[in-house]
Amino acid sequence: MDKPTSTKLEVIVPAFRMHSQLFYNVLKGLEEADALKRVNNLTNHVVWMAGNLVNCHYMIADLLGLDDKDPYNELFSEGRSLDERLPYPTLEQLKNSFATVSANVYHELLSASDDLLAKPAPFGMNIPFVEENVLNMIGMCIGREDYLLGQMGLMRKLLGLKGMSYDINTDLDY
């Protein structure tokens, strides 16, 4: 198992890797048409959820100083609301973006220094007990990803699919 340079990331790195596994697992067997369905027109669709999760990885990339830019940022930045008038990327396009940014972020997480993690990163939530720095913003992104994976797992069931698998692809190294 890879160990991060900073001990502050010892919980983040395994969570990040597990999210990579679960991202592919939650989308496995999901047809594109089903991924655009909403329950009673009240929920977001899976494409929107997946796009937001991918956008979280791009946000982490930015926090770590990487040049990776989300090609669908205008649709998903800061949890932007679903707009059914707009064309959304396909699941395959999102998987491709995810693979590119996730591999880069994973390697950067492993080498991130305590100094980088302590850098201010204002995210405007003004929570008195959360210091707005790179480390805490990465933590907020990981928490959001947990939430989105749970939503997508529930949507699988509502769409008549089996629940998300926790199978591990040992060839996935990010």
Write up what this structure looks like:
The chain has 174 residues and is an all-alpha fold. The chain has one domain: dinb family like domain (Four Helix Bundle (Hemerythrin (Met), subunit A)), CATH 1.20.120.450. The mean pLDDT is 96.
The averaged pLDDT comes out at 96
Distance between the termini: 11 Å
CATH architecture: Up-down Bundle
Number of domains in the coordinates? 1
- What is the CATH fold-level name? Four Helix Bundle (Hemerythrin (Met), subunit A)
**How many helix segments?**
7
The unreliable regions are none
**CATH superfamily name?**
dinb family like domain
CATH class: Mainly Alpha
Largest sheet: none
Quaternary state, please?
single chain
Radius of gyration: 16 Å
Short overview:
With 174 residues, this protein is mostly helical. Helices cover 53% and strands 0% of the residues.
Architecture blueprint of SSEs:
Layout: H1 12-27, H2 32-35, H3 46-63, H4 73-76, H5 91-111, H6 114-118, H7 134-158
Key terms:
174 residues, mainly alpha, Four Helix Bundle (Hemerythrin (Met), subunit A), 53% helix, globular
